[in-house]
Amino acid sequence: MADQTESCTVIAASPAEVMRVIADFPAYPEWAGAVKEAEVLEPGVDGRARQVRFRLDAGVIRDEYVLMYDWQDDAVSWNLVRAGLLTAMSGSYTLAASGGGTEVTYRLAVNVRVPMIGLLKRKAEKAIIDTALKELKKRVEG
């Protein structure tokens, strides 16, 4: 799963403020439209989640999956542990201070059980990323 789709945005907040919102999984259903449920299954040693179960309803795609997280000061990455429809998922948020705000870069690669043409898969990943960044920006700045 080497091909990843990437996009970025600038959020008018500090990297720490942005990371707090990213790490607050129980609040995702309040602001991430497709996430209907998010449950921390395993906390990490630093208090941030190590494993999280999500229930997703994005219209044509409905799934329940578990992600394993790896946290750094300025980034978080994840990999799929188990799912129904998804066969693989890896991604990351990377944060960098930028002129009084934070540049957030989101990378994502997803594979599903249903065969998809590469171009169609990348378009779907791009739509997921753009929506996630827009919703994150609105939540942090809101």
* Uncertain stretches of 5 or more adjacent residues: none
How many strands in all?
A: 7
What's the SSE pattern?
A: EHHEEEEEEH
Share of helix among residues? 25-40%
* CATH top level label: Alpha Beta
Number of domains: 1
Number of helical regions: 3
How would you describe the oligomerization state of the chains in this entry?
Answer: single chain
Strand proportion? over 45%
> Which strand order spans the largest sheet, edge to edge or round the barrel?
1-7-6-5-4-3-2
Question: If you consult CATH, what is the topology?
Answer: Alpha-D-Glucose-1,6-Bisphosphate, Chain A, domain 4
Structural class: alpha+beta
> CATH-wise, what's the superfamily?
START domain
Describe the biggest sheet?
A: 7 strands, antiparallel
Query: Which radius of gyration do the C-alpha atoms yield?
Result: 15 Å
What is the residue-mean pLDDT, rounded to a whole number? 90
> What is the terminal separation in angstroms?
35 Å
> Outline, from the CA principal axes?
globular
CATH-level-2 architecture: 2-Layer Sandwich
Give a structural overview.
With 142 residues, this protein is of the alpha+beta class. It has one domain: START domain (Alpha-D-Glucose-1,6-Bisphosphate, Chain A, domain 4, 2-Layer Sandwich). 26% of the residues lie in helices and 50% in strands. Strands 1-7-6-5-4-3-2 form a seven-stranded antiparallel sheet. The relative contact order is 0.24.
